[in-house]
TrEMBL record:
TM region positions: 7-28
SUPFAM superfamilies for the chain: Nucleotide-diphospho-sugar transferases
Similarity comment: Belongs to the glycosyltransferase 47 family.
Function comment: Glycosyltransferase forming with EXT2 the heterodimeric heparan sulfate polymerase which catalyzes the elongation of the heparan sulfate glycan backbone. Glycan backbone extension consists in the alternating transfer of (1->4)-beta-D-GlcA and (1->4)-alpha-D-GlcNAc residues from their respective UDP-sugar donors.
Protein name: Exostosin-1
Amino acid sequence: MQAKKRYFILLSAGSCLALLFYFGGLQFRASRSHSRREEHSRRNGLHHPSPDHFWPRFPDALRPFVPWDQLENEDSSVHISPRQKRDANSSIYKGKKCRMESCFDFTLCKKNGFKVYVYPQQKGEKIAESYQNILAAIEGSRFYTSDPSQACLFVLSLDTLDRDQLSPQYVHNLRSKVQSLHLWNSGRNHLIFNLYSGTWPDYTEDVGFDIGQAMLAKASISTENFRPNFDVSIPLFSKDHPRTGGERGFLKFNTIPPLRKYMLVFKGKRYLTGIGSDTRNALYHVHNGEDVLLLTTCKHGKDWQKHKDSRCDRDNTEYEKYDYREMLHNATFCLVPRGRRLGSFRFLEALQAACVPVMLSNGWELPFSEVINWNQAAVIGDERLLLQIPSTIRSIHQDKILALRQQTQFLWEAYFSSVEKIVLTTLEIIQDRIFKHISRNSLIWNKHPGGLFVLPQYSSYLGDFPYYYANLGLKPPSKFTAVIHAVTPLVSQSQPVLKLLVAAARSQYCAQIIVLWNCDKPLPAKHRWPATAVPVIVIEGESKVMSSRFLPYDNIVTDAVLSLDEDTVLSTTEVDFAFTVWQSFPERIVGYPARSHFWDNSKERWGYTSKWTNDYSMVLTGAALYHKYYHYLYTHYLPASLKNMVDQLANCEDILMNFLVSAVTKLPPIKVTQKKQYKETMMGQTSRASRWADPDHFAQRQSCMNTFTSWFGYMPLIHSQMRLDPVLFKDQVSILRKKYRDIERL
């Protein structure tokens, strides 16, 4: 048997070799004869490329490169599937292959930076309130330009938000209106906002006109149609969503354990037929009437009774028993199933309520997914595994639940609480794509204070910001720069500004002193300034306005800034103690003079008070420490209108800085050591510093409070009753046991 096997194997191998030599020989002979013909033609000058020139033949020849937008004009003999034909005819798919590298002109952004132009509104065109809010947010941002030649990005004034043909907000003839715009350029460098697309019964994602090479900022967009690194997925928000500011999240206390009355809740419409009906029709299988409340109603639409099923009446009865807001505030997890479209209003409602969203919308590209890590704030479920949802969320540990809830609050307040934040987040994402070398990383976007307040133009190193020392394992800065704001001429060696300069220079933590000379008189001679152990730099203010004290001067070499008015009274010991406190709170304002705000019911406006109480919400920058990044943020983040107001009044710059820092940190400032007098009382009444005695000064500050609140959209200041004193301060023990003993003698 073994011998027969060997003979069979040898015979098979021999046959294969014979066939190989036979066919190979034919090709070799053909190749040689072809080469002879080529050589003969070449010698006689008759050489022409032969169509059967020897080269390996493939079943599908490689096609030459053709730009994506010319594919429609190719030879009709090319095979195209029916689905590809439908996609080619649908306007949303014509630029499906667009990416920033292929459909965006970066050269427009290199010259003038990231500037956004909004087309002027055309007469007779209706614009819904939601779209008006979007345009207002752009026009009020630091990116806006009214000059199209300066623009890097263009936004239509034509309302593109609602493209449902059955909607009263639907704009007709949008295709021709868009094409007639002289700057349209096939949509290149354009951004189109859209909340609703398609209509009954299929609710496609077609916006009803050819978007060309424009980017889409779209709600309810699917991963199939989403163009990565080009489109931006935005949340679906209602017409009542606030334009600016917005309410804060509902998580007031970090309760331990973080569990609430209900484990999982949902209350909404149930669709009996059509797209989006499968998931909501199956929710009753999970509902247990105890800690899992999934309530649906068929009672919507004009003809609901004609189509109702056997469960409708029972569902409607139970639906009416529960208050939706009460459920939200008392639930740990909130189900967010898809509706007719992939997105749902329930998504933002759950975020605000600190109710962890359980996503049940297969194929939905989650809002701002390019920068937000939703695994830190939501549970991503699968519609096909609905019955496993309860057991899955019950298995999540309480530590993880608390972390998820905290992240929902951060994301809500950072990116979703207002139309303005949604729009600015969209623009910042696009700006990061354009200027990749200074773009924000995932840590910035997903950690407090968020991407809107961390401007990468300031620095590409996280250690230069006051929010990431712990993440990077860095120690707080060990030195500070004292910046003294001088507005009166130097006429005597006993003036308070010189005493203050000497006291600050003696601090062991002082690296240098900068005197900002905003006086109308010429700079004093160098010998007029006292000799100190640290450098003293005198800068003459170019514009000599109040906001100039917060300019990001290159001379400030330390991260910590000690801001001082020229008539401030501080000892070296007080400076040292305040700085050691600031090192523990580098993201906040830390200082001595405290003020507070209150709501005046009689006038229905915010009030400002300097009364001596245990409650405060501001620490004035006449004697305060903060991070120098706030100089950059004050200069480049705040609008020119607020800074111009400060400069015209020569007042309120310290209030505006407190507004800014509290808006960023969501925390109050920190007052150190009780001190009633921090101003020199012997100042001449002719100096500009005597504005504190001006009766109009206080009224102006009242007005400033309300103007600032209007721009921020809410009151960012936060009250505090915490005051930090040195250990053993005022205690009846030996003075020798106290480190900052001189403070008690003041």
